[in-house]
Design a protein that fits this description.
Helices cover about 40% and strands about 20% of the residues. It has helices at about 15-30, 45-55, 65-70, 75-90, 110-130, 145-155, 165-175, 195-205, 210-230, 275-280; strands at about 5-15, 40-45, 65, 95-100, 135-140, 185-190, 230-240, 240-250, 285-290, 290-300. A five-stranded parallel beta sheet has the order 1-5-4-2-3, sandwiched between helices. Strands 6-7-8-10-9 form a five-stranded antiparallel beta sheet. The two termini are about 35 Å apart.
Length: about 300
């Protein structure tokens, strides 16, 4: 179990009264903790209604945030939401209580790849927020989260008896091989960067992406390429709304937090290129191999 200021708890429930039995004491604990701001409850709207009724007048001291407003886009967006919220609302040292209910009956659970990405987020949270004295309670509804999701989530929370080191979990996720590119994948040569960006942009538009989406896809690939260094191969395939780019590089990407660490300022420097890419793309798959890495980006 990690010894960091960050406290990352988990609870499961299968009925509304069980949800209240786990979350009301947590919020009451937060309200009685000295020198902390009001706690935040990030949950489905119907769960927020339950909390309003259960807490009565104390609810005015709780920030109520619909989970649909918090868990948007990729897992990297959830990291950004948390980092921004703590920077704006937490007491010194990141002291705050956050009740968090992931949307396993929505975007996060819509397919195995996205489920794996959100499990990765839960695991990496133990590293990303380790310096902060934040107390988080992740609430999992067994009516919408499958037994496999619950089992995987237990591995990511230090207060369970099946917790595993985050790097082990990410290694397990990355051990799943990527399917091979399709035979008709379009290769790009690598002249000057502006020329490559133009070629990607033109390809994306030809495959049906609207102008704004094609521009974002191009910027994400450019940011990733800048971060990764020399790229030896670029392959493009797919049709709108799902277009895929695969990069081969001579450098390994052996940092499990690559692309998840928010930039320290609003200005993105090359070192944060993968952060921008993870926010823009639905999936960013990274696989290291002996001579470098394969990075696959899917815009959707």
């Amino acid at each position: 179990m990690p010894t960091t200021p960050f406290t990352h708890r988990m609870t499961t429930y299968g009925a509304d009264d069980e949800f209240l039995a786990a979350t009301v004491p947590f919020l009451t604990e937060a309200l009685s903790t000295p020198d902390e701001p009001p706690p935040a409850a990030i949950a489905a709207p119907d769960k927020l209604d339950l909390l309003r009724e259960a807490l009565g007048k104390d609810i005015k001291h709780v920030a109520l945030i619909p989970s649909t407003d918090w868990y948007t886009g990729s897992a990297a967006n959830a990291v950004a939401q948390s980092a921004d919220y703590l920077a704006t609302h937490a007491a010194p040292g990141g002291r705050a209580h956050l009740l968090m209910e992931p949307l396993w009956n929505g975007r996060a659970g819509r397919d195995p790849r996205e489920t794996a990405e959100w499990i990765r987020y839960e695991a990496l949270a133990n590293l990303l927020f380790a310096p902060f004295a934040t107390t988080a309670l992740c609430a999992y509804d067994t009516r919408t989260a499958t037994p496999a999701v619950i089992e995987a989530a237990r591995r990511t929370h230090p207060d369970t008896d099946t917790y595993q080191d985050p790097t082990h979990i990410t290694a397990d996720l990355d051990a799943v091989p990527l399917p091979p590119p399709p035979p008709d994948a379009h290769p790009l040569t690598h002249p000057a960067a502006p020329t490559t960006a133009t070629a990607v942009r033109q390809w994306a538009r030809a495959r049906g992406l609207p102008v704004a989406d094609a521009e974002l896809f191009t910027e994400a690939i450019t940011a990733a390429t800048t971060t990764l260094g020399p790229v030896t191969e670029t392959l493009l395939w797919g049709e709108a709304p799902s277009c895929v780019c695969q990069l081969r590089t001579t450098h390994r990407v052996d940092d499990p937090l690559a692309g998840f660490v928010p930039p320290p300022t609003a200005e993105l420097d090359p070192a944060q290129g993968l952060w921008f890419t993870r926010q823009v793309c639905a999936y960013v798959d990274i696989r290291d191999h002996p001579t470098g890495a394969t990075v696959r980006l899917q815009y959707a």
